[in-house]
């Protein structure tokens, strides 16, 4: 395509009109060949000047028409000092159910900071549910820009689906763990069954409510807490299997996620004990519900990772904002918000500030102490693995 063809239609029209005006300005507008030649040479500079004027006007017209420019100019005022107002951007956050209270406080702080620093409006679409269900939704087409899930195994599934690039654990601090908690046992008022440890959940007269490990990341942590309560205190795997079987035998119903498990226990009145996150109990207390619960002193660190969904942010053009949001979640400001709603902070400074808020754990183990998620998934949660065998009475 020639330079002439690349000019906007308005610019080409303007140039033609200028040239025609010059030609018409010649007396009688009747030029012979020699006259035209003389006009051509004598007026070359004039034509060139007029042409450049036309091109300049054409460029101006193009700029005003917004040809290919994604930004608009904001009205000049004291707030933006004439700075350019960037196009609004929308980020989709997909997370597991019990993080909602924290994100509801953190997101407005990030939006305010981003607007101040970048003069751009950011809005968030948010989706919350069971971690396993959320993972499948993202793989099946829910176009998350950022995923904050209950366990790294779920994030790895999204990676294996080709949506997240390998190495995401190194893209954020603390191996991408942005929030954490421990397991809690919630009891009925007055704790009539005298439940204080994981072992008490095996009593024949105790009914336990926990979500389904097939759909809930929280429930997988619960399962691993049962197992590790034995193997991390001197017991072997045979004893751990027997213990876990006894606990699950006392589970009358398995909701799909931690939030529904809470509803079954409190709203429907089922069960004597509810296995949930410590942060949920702290948040409930802050909201005026003084629920009785215990934190077993042998416990698992419930580590929740954060990751940018590479394929989607590149498709949406949201990578810069999404990565900035992930980074913001590690700031003391954001970590304090996690702590306020009961999560144990990963920032050392904030951890020190709020240490009196959380009971000390005598024996705290991680999923890596149990062999890591690949081993754990294959051994316990794959189809036909330990959990399925227990459910089948094997």
UniProtKB/TrEMBL annotation:
CDD domains in the record: PBP2_CysP
| A GO CC term assigned to this protein in UniProt | periplasmic space
The record ties this protein, via Gene3D superfamilies, to: Periplasmic binding protein-like II
Q: Does the keyword section mention Methyltransferase? A: no
Entry's Pfam families? SBP_bac_11 (PF13531)
Where does this chain mainly localize?
periplasm
An example GO biological process term is: sulfate transmembrane transport
Cell location: Periplasm
Entry keyword set: Periplasm, Signal, Transport
Q: Is Signal found in the keyword set?
A: yes
Q: Which InterPro entries match?
A: Sulphate/thiosulphate_BS (IPR034408), Thiosulph/SO4-bd (IPR005669)
Q: Name one GO molecular function term.
A: molecular carrier activity
Write down the superkingdom of origin.
Bacteria
What family is it from? Belongs to the prokaryotic sulfate-binding protein family.
The protein depicted here goes by the name Sulfate/thiosulfate-binding protein
């Amino acid at each position: 395509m020639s330079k002439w063809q690349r000019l906007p239609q308005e610019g080409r029209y303007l140039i033609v009109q200028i040239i025609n005006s010059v030609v018409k300005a010649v007396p009688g507008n009747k030029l012979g060949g020699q006259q035209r030649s003389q006009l051509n040479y004598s007026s070359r500079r004039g034509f060139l000047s007029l042409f450049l004027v036309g091109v300049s006007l054409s460029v101006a017209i193009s700029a005003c028409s917004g040809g290919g420019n994604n930004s608009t100019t904001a009205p000049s005022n004291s707030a933006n000092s004439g700075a350019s107002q960037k196009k609004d951007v929308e980020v989709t956050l997909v997370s597991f159910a019990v993080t909602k209270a924290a994100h509801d406080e953190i997101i407005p702080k990030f939006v305010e900071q981003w607007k101040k620093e970048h003069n751009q409006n950011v809005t968030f679409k948010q989706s919350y549910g069971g971690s396993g269900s959320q993972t499948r939704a993202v793989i099946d087409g829910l176009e998350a820009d950022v995923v904050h899930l209950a366990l790294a195994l779920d994030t790895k599934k999204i990676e294996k689906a080709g949506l997240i690039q390998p190495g995401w654990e190194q893209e954020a601090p603390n191996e991408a763990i942005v929030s954490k908690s421990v397991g809690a046992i919630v009891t009925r008022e007055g704790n009539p069954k005298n439940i204080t440890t994981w072992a008490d959940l095996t009593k024949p007269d105790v009914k336990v409510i926990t979500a389904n490990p097939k759909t809930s990341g929280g429930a997988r942590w619960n399962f691993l807490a049962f197992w590790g309560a034995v193997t991390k205190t001197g017991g072997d795997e045979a004893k751990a299997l027997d213990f876990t079987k006894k606990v699950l035998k006392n589970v009358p119903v398995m909701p799909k996620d931690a939030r529904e498990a809470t509803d079954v226990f409190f709203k429907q009145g089922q069960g004597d004990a509810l296995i949930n996150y410590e942060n949920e109990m702290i948040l409930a207390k802050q909201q005026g519900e003084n629920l009785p619960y215990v934190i077993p002193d042998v416990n698992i660190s419930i580590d929740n990772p954060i990751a940018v969904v590479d394929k989607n942010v590149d498709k949406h053009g949201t990578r810069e904002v999404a990565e900035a949001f992930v980074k913001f979640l590690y700031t003391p400001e954001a970590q304090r918000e996690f702590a306020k709603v009961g999560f144990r902070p990963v920032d050392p400074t904030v951890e020190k500030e709020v240490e009196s808020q959380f009971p000390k754990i005598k024996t705290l183990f991680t999923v890596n102490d149990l062999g890591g998620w690949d081993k754990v998934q294959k051994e316990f949660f794959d189809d036909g693995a330990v959990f399925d065998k227990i459910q089948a009475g094997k």
